[in-house]
Amino acid sequence: MRHENRVVLVTGATGGIGSALVERYLREGARVGLVDLDDARGQAAVQDWRQQGHVVSFAAADVSQYAACAAAVEHIRAELGEIDTLVNNAGISPKHDGAPSPVQSMDALEWDRVVGVNLNSAFYLTRLLAPGMIARGFGRIVSMSSVAGKVAISNIVGAHYSATKAALIGFTRHAAAELGPHGITVNALAPGRISTPLLSTVADAANQAVIRETALRRLGKPSEVANVCAFLTSGEAAFVTGQVVDVAGGWLMT
Length: 254
Ligand code: NAP
Fold this sequence. Notes:
The protein is of the alpha/beta class and 254 residues long. The chain contains seven helices and seven strands; from the N terminus they run βαβαβαβαβαβααβ. The chain has a seven-stranded parallel beta sheet, sandwiched between helices. Strand 5, helix 5 (159-179) and strand 6 form a beta-alpha-beta unit. Helix 1 packs across helix 7, helix 3 (66-80) packs parallel to helix 4 (108-136) and helix 4 (108-136) runs parallel beside helix 5 (159-179). The longest helix has 29 residues, at 108-136. The site of NADP nicotinamide-adenine-dinucleotide phosphate (NAP) has 28 residues, from helix 1. Residues 11-12, 14-18, 36-38, 62-64, 89-93, 117, 144, 146, 191, 193-194, 196-199 line the site of NADP nicotinamide-adenine-dinucleotide phosphate.
């Protein structure tokens, strides 16, 4: 029960990795606030968890919008109490017929959307939650980057995705330096290929090629990302901050 008495906010909380994060934190004794786009899916998820005796709250929000993030934080804070742990997990990776747009023909609105969801959301929620964490002298923040933030994998993701995942690493290190004196750790995860709905957007051949290049010769499981995230926000990692941890089975070893 490493997260007993903690309140964790997870974005993208009904997706592949998000659902595993929620499950992991609940099993470790936390109260968990779920934030995601789809209201019906979120309500169904919280109903399931409540039936199992867990304390959860759901706020439907488009995390690319500051006002929506603020409303979600208020809702979860009112239902669960002060939020001490933030997991910036929501992310999108647009594809067209199974492939990302090449940079020379990428739609500018699509670029803006990816920046909004993958990057701006992490700033918005950190901006909203850091003052309370500073006041209480404790906080944990993890953002979901990607190996695509460190190396080019242009057959799988677009330039917007790579750019936002790289930017999350810079954001993580900067925020870690600024917030560290206040007892707040800020880290990032860089998953490799994890078996979630996001994967089905690319051709199976691309995923098979990744498996051949992965030391452990398989895709990762969402729970394997959640395990490392929960470690980073637990007391066991109290002296770890400003780090980017690969959860990639030895793919690319960045
Ligand atoms: P996923 O299954 O598609 O889950 C993403 C979740 O975020 C979905 O529930 C999605 O809702 C939600 N979301 C999308 N746009 C949103 C918005 N504007 N506001 C709020 N929620 C929004 O993807 P995943 O594989 O679990 O990915 C989770 C994170 O891990 C992402 O940041 C991703 O980039 C990162 N990651 C994944 C992999 C991988 O191989 N799977 C690898 C590296 C990094 P909808 O379904 O309604 O769109």
